[in-house]
Task: structure prediction
Amino acid sequence: MKRNRLLLLSLISSLLVILVSLFQWDLIDIITEFLMLPIWLFVYAFFIIMTIWTLIHLLKNRKWQPFVIQLITILLWFFFPFNQINLDLNFRIHQDKREEVATKIENGVIKPNVPNSPSLIQLPKEYTQLSKGGGDIVVETKGKAKSILFFTYRGMIDNFSGFVYNPNDNKPSKSDFNGDFKQIKKVHKNWYYVSSY
Result:
């Protein structure tokens, strides 16, 4: 019975680490980074304690299954691209709706609507899920061309990331949207992923 309990706790701790790793940006958007800190502390502390416990159990009783589960989770945590999978899913799920918003902006149906910020748009309720951090998007105009930034992470001060739509497929520059982009990567025709952290 004790061994089954250890195996179950090992599975739970590993599952928690995998779920938090995969969905951490969605959780941050819902509960903020400050409230995410206790969740990270609990999940990773629980996982570390379980890893130590399973290692002791392996050395004392030669029962290897719980420790192998922990080891596999550690390898996944270090080498599996959880963030990239989350971003790919986010892009694919919301691409059509984001392009619909972009078309409405180009046609003047949706216009900047935030006082004292001529480039910011608070999306209508049916589109708020398309941009993290409250459903705001940023429109940057260069000549006649408009680029639109949909946030995937809207951090503090100048740390943010998101998908930029440009109808002419022009790559954003490092300083677009008042950012200092460390990463600019094309993800699809007319779409780029940008990150300033």
Summary: The helical segments are 2-61, 65-79, 82-106. The beta strands are 120-122, 136-142, 145-154, 160-165, 183-188, 191-195.
